[in-house]
Design a protein that fits this description.
Length: about 190
C-alpha cells in the first residue's frame, strides 16, 4: 500500500516576493508608474522580474517603502503571511455615477459616447472647421452673435443688391459709362 502525500508540491512551495510585488504593480498603469510612486528606480524594479527561477529578494528597506506606499503590511509583502490586501476602490465621481446605471444603460452610454466621439473626429477632419476653431475667441464670439441675431443675412442681402453695381458711388443707383471714364468728381444733381 502506497502512502499518499499530505500536501502537494505547490502548497509546500513558498510564493516568491515578486508575485506579491506584481500584484501591487497591477494597481498602477505601468511598472514605471509603480516605481515612481514607490520612489524606487525602474531598473531596480525590473531586475526582480528578470530571473524567474530564483528571483532576487528586495532589501527590507525597499519592501518597507513599497508596503507603506501601498498600504499593505510588511509581513504580507515579505512572507505572504496575513490576509492579502484588497484592491483599493476608486471613489471618483464618474465611477459613482456609473454605478447607478444598469448594464444595459452602461452599454447604451458607451455606444452614444463612441458615436459622438467618431462624429467629433470626422468634424475635426474638415479643413473649414479647423480654420474656424483656430480663429481668436473674440472673432468666434462675433460670428456666433451675428449668426444668432441674423445680421449676417441682412448684410448678405445688402451685398447681393450692390454686387450688380460696377464701380458705382454710394449715392448712385447705377454707374454710367460716362461716370466710369471721368476722372474729375461729378457734381451732384
Amino acid at each position: 500500500m502506497r502512502k499518499e502525500p499530505r500536501s502537494t508540491l505547490h502548497s509546500q512551495r513558498k510564493v516568491p516576493v515578486i508575485d506579491r510585488i506584481s500584484e501591487l504593480v497591477r494597481r498602477h498603469p505601468s511598472r514605471s508608474a509603480a516605481a515612481r510612486t514607490w520612489g524606487i528606480n525602474i531598473n531596480t524594479l525590473n531586475s526582480y522580474y528578470k530571473n524567474e527561477l530564483s528571483p532576487p529578494i528586495p532589501r527590507d528597506n525597499l519592501l518597507a517603502r513599497i508596503a507603506e506606499s501601498e498600504g499593505v503590511s510588511l509581513e504580507w509583502l515579505k512572507n505572504g503571511e496575513m490576509e492579502s490586501p484588497k484592491t483599493p476602490i476608486s471613489s471618483d465621481g464618474l465611477s459613482e455615477l456609473l454605478s447607478f446605471l444598469t448594464d444595459e444603460e452602461r452599454h447604451q452610454l458607451t455606444m452614444v459616447l463612441t458615436r459622438k466621439g467618431v462624429e467629433t473626429i470626422l468634424y475635426l477632419l474638415d479643413e473649414n472647421n479647423l480654420l474656424l476653431l483656430q480663429q481668436p475667441d473674440t472673432l468666434k464670439a462675433h460670428m456666433i452673435q451675428e449668426y444668432i441675431t441674423g445680421t449676417h443675412q441682412e448684410r448678405e442681402a445688402t451685398t447681393a443688391s450692390t454686387t450688380n453695381k460696377v464701380c458705382a458711388r454710394a449715392n448712385e443707383e447705377q454707374a454710367t459709362s460716362k461716370s466710369l471714364t471721368t476722372t474729375r468728381p461729378r457734381k451732384a444733381g
